[in-house]
Amino acid sequence: LHLPCIQEWARNQVDACVLRLMNESEEAQGEAPLTAAQARAAAEWGCPKCRQQYPASELPRTYTCFCGKVEDPEWDPWVAPHTCGELCGKPLTSSTTGAAVKGDNNAFAGAGDGGSGGGMIGADQGCGHKCLLLCHPGPCPPCPRIVDASCYCGKRRSKRRCGHQAYSCGRPCGKIQPCGHPCSAPCHPPGGCPPCEVVTERPCACGAETRRMACCEGVFHCSKPCQRRLACGNHVCEQVCHAGPCGECPHQGVRTCPCGKAVYSELKCTEKAPTCGATCGKLLPCGLHTCHDRCHHGECSSCRTLVSKPCRCGKMTREV
Q: Taking the model in full, what pTM does it have?
């Protein structure tokens, strides 16, 4: 688009946006209407090509060629419209960042680099080469310079275009993973190897069983009790297969009588907590009554409370 055309387009869109914002503010209840200056400060216009929104303060006032070197380029029938006819010169990017590459002197060597061709490819400065096309619209093509590039795993080097130097050699990666096995996946981009698939005989968390499983599946747990000797030396761990320490003996420390009313703090783990002599009071399996026996070890007896229950047809009742 020509500069006067895009300026007129932007002004028309800004005026329409200002009018819409002022009308919406007048219709809104409980808010003061916007002034013309406030509405213009909040107005936007959209590029007719890319549809990106710009604030009203960023109306285009200068016109440059595509590469940005020449302001208001003169029309030339021998070059593309809106271009200056000079080399583009924009910095190019590579498909690999953070890798060392060594270039060869060839027809694609960047202007002004002296043909040295060595350097580090960084994410901020691109590949270090410049576009050698004439001033052109749209993005620059990938860097065409020939460089000595290595594959992802670093085992193979070959001559490749700088813009397409990231490649896989297809050989096994071979990097040592945290488990100690080398990565068997084909040469792959950086960012971490896939999970290790080596099948080995592996013990469970408590060591009671073994199982053949892939290395990446982690630790498995069997269904057996741990049975490791606890620190007290008198009991074994009754937890189901687990990793890490078993913890303290559950029979040590503060304990209570079977019904929970009396507290004992100085009992040995080999001693049973004595009964307190009070009524048990635990809820019975019937869910309605409590145990009337004295504090006792083991399960409570069956409920002996008499209740009136009807027969199946409901015509008679009896205490049972």
A: 0.46
